[in-house]
Each structure stands twice: as structure tokens, then as C-alpha cells.
Amino acid sequence: MSRFQLQVNGKPHSVEVDPDTPLLYVLRNDLKLNGAKFGCGLGQCGACTVMLDKEAVMSCLVPVALVGSRAVRTVESGGTRWVPSSVLQQAFLDEQAGQCGYCIAGMVMRATALFEQVASPTDAQIRSWMQPNLCRCGSHLRILRAVRRAADVLAAQPIRNY
């Protein structure tokens, strides 16, 4: 066991875990942040996607020892389904992008990373960027429409709040 200092959603956290413990388990079990979901545990579905600095990562593949001083952001850093805090969250609601909702937190985090790196993504960029995350309900087209809707709204805003 080792002690790690993590910066999660803008707040410092100290955890004592095995260095090989996946970040996903630390978030869910130790910090009680359950937005990132366990899907496959192999980095093949994206349900566990969070952000390290401005990069979308599958937290089931990231040992906590490799996080270091990078900022971790989870879907909990945003609003709630009742009070969305971003254009992106509102677009997911408007497009009814979540059927069962299991993949949505990972989808929102992957799209957030897209908007932080590409100011005005094309449809091809959106499809390519979202490709690593799977939706088993078949909401992919709604999810893509939600990301496109958010991109269009953000393009018209002087201050970006994705």
C-alpha cells in the first residue's frame, strides 16, 4: 500500500491503495465518485472515461501510480441531470442521447476532451473522436447528434462552456 495525493474535480484527495490499483477503482471505491462506470475492465468500451488534464483516458487502464500531479476530472465535475451545467450536458438531454445511461458519463467526458482540443469539430472529427466509446443500447446516432448540437452552440458563443 502507498499513499497518493490526487487532484480530482479541483479538490485534493489522499488515498492509500496499491500502486497498481486502476484509477477507476479509486474513484468509485475510495472517493465515492460513481459517474465513471466499470464496463469491460479492458479499455474496450469507454464507460470509465475520465480526463487527465485535457486528455480523455479509460480509467480502468490507468494505474493510480501513473496519475501523478495531473488533474483528474470526472462527470461529477459538471452539473446534474436536473441542473445541467454545460452546453454539452444540455445537448445530451435535448437529443435524448441516453437510453440506459450507462455509457453517457464516458461519452460526455470524451466529448469534453474533444471540445478542449478542437474548437469547431467537423462531423468526421466527432465520429472519429467518439469512436472508442461504445453504446450497447444503440444510441450512437443520438450521441453524435448531441455532440454536433453542442459544437454548433459553442461555435456561436464568445466564451466556451462545454
Enumerate how many helices there are, as a single number. Answer: 5
Instruction: Give me the side-by-side strand order of the main sheet.
Output: 2-1-5-3-4
* Beta strands, count: 5
Total discrete domains: 2
First-last Cα distance: 37 Å
Secondary-structure element pattern, one letter each: EEHEEEHHHH
According to CATH, what is the class of the largest domain? Alpha Beta
- Average pLDDT confidence is 91
Structural class: alpha+beta
- Portion in beta strands: 15-25%
Gross geometry: globular
Oligomer classification: single chain
CATH architecture of the largest domain: Roll
CATH superfamily of the largest domain: Beta-grasp domain
Q: Mind telling me the C-alpha Rg?
A: 15 Å
- Low-confidence stretches at least 5 residues in length (pLDDT < 50)? none
Largest sheet: 5 strands, mixed
Which fold name fills CATH's third level, the topology of the largest domain?
Ubiquitin-like (UB roll)
Roughly what percent helix? Answer: 25-40%
